[in-house]
Design a protein that fits this description.
single chain, about 325 residues, alpha/beta, binds S-adenosyl-L-homocysteine
Length: about 325
């Protein structure tokens, strides 16, 4: 819902109307009609003038593991995907897109192969989460869908700041970045809320990382890691490092040793991601992932292996793309 448009339309009403509309919406209301503490005239006016959501769901896919992927269209017809992940322990995590498409061209990620459209507004970002909030309570959000959040840092942070109203605390909100420095620096300097940071690293040397992620030519590894360490010092929270496991590319024990050498265990926690097929590479075997993790364990660098969700409906990491 475009709450700015709502406020403008209700400009003649008392200022608390905006808050009332938002409170209903954030708690999962499905229409203006449900907002019974608004005067009927205001409800009708809203109904006539402002779409309840900035996004229109176009397609929904259900995985056998409970994951749900939804394709939306913006009002100007751009595609956006978001994913709801349901875990056995009851956690409900929503993966949000920050852009329609992505201008970066990481070689392993399907989103980079579709045409980049534009940044999403804060309301378009929140409407993805609200769609799922209307189905059931949600408690975690990751900005790991389409797009590079730090290229759209203002709208991403504006959306993240409102997530507690939907039931998602800042500590359970994670923004993931390739290390786009201008946005990352602003995030570190300006965001005082304890929102978590994740860095898509995937290689511990500039040579290999540039091969996998062209953005590395622009913002080299050491500068990006230095910015992450600044986040750790200011926020007193570790940075998650995402590392997608590509067979024969970045998954040898030597790569693990290099990784352990560049990441200090006081600042970083590694999340090894099994590669989800996008046509470009082969995923590392279970054994290769285990051996890699063993090297990290021996170096006492904390690490986990990411649970793959929604692969059967192309809803897993790196698989979001739409013609
Ligand atoms: N642009 C941001 C936000 C997207 S997060 C970023 O890259 O951090 C999506 C995560 O999934 C990133 O860590 C990305 O590197 C990872 N990913 C991309 N393609 C993948 C694939 N095919 N298999 C597994 N993970 C992938």
């Amino acid at each position: 819902m475009d709450l700015d448009a709502v406020a403008a339309l209700l400009a003649d009403e008392p200022a608390y109307r905006r808050r009332q509309v938002w409170e209903w919406t954030a708690r999962g209301a499905g229409s203006y009609a449900e907002m019974t503490n608004l005067p009927r005239g205001a409800r009708n006016l809203l109904e006539d003038e402002i779409p309840f959501s900035t996004l229109v769901p176009a397609h929904e896919a259900h995985s056998k593991d409970g994951t749900v992927k939804v394709l939306f269209h913006t009002a100007d017809e751009h595609p956006v995907e978001a994913v709801l992940m349901r875990y056995r322990d009851g956690r409900r995590s929503v993966c949000l897109s920050s852009q329609s498409g992505c201008p970066l061209t990481c070689t392993f990620c399907a989103t980079g192969t579709m045409r980049f459209r534009r940044n999403l507004t804060a309301w378009e970002i929140l409407d993805q989460a609200l769609h799922f909030r209307r189905l059931e309570p949600i408690d975690h959000v990751v900005f790991m869908g389409m797009g590079e959040p730090m290229l759209n840092v203002d709208h991403v942070v504006a959306a993240a700041r409102l997530l507690p109203d939907l039931g998602v605390t800042h500590r359970r909100t994670t923004i993931s970045t390739v290390g786009w420095l201008p946005g990352l620096t602003r995030f570190v300097d300006e965001v005082e809320q304890p929102i978590r940071l994740a860095l898509s690293l995937h290689a511990a040397t500039d040579a290999l990382r540039s091969e996998l992620m062209p953005v590395n030519d622009r913002y080299p590894l050491e500068d990006v890691l230095a910015e992450c360490r600044r986040y750790v010092q200011l926020r007193r929270r570790k940075v998650f490092v995402e590392y997608v496991m590509l067979a024969g590319v970045n998954d040898a024990p030597e790569h693990a040793a290099e990784l352990a050498a560049v990441l200090d265990k006081a600042s970083f926690k590694v999340n090894l991601i099994p590669y989800n097929p996008t046509g470009m590479y082969d995923g590392s075997s279970r054994d290769a992932i285990a051996s890699f993790k063993h090297v990290l364990d021996r170096a006492r660098l904390p690490s986990t292996v990411r649970l793959t969700r929604g692969r059967d409906i192309a809803a897993a990491c790196g698989q979001l793309a739409s013609a």
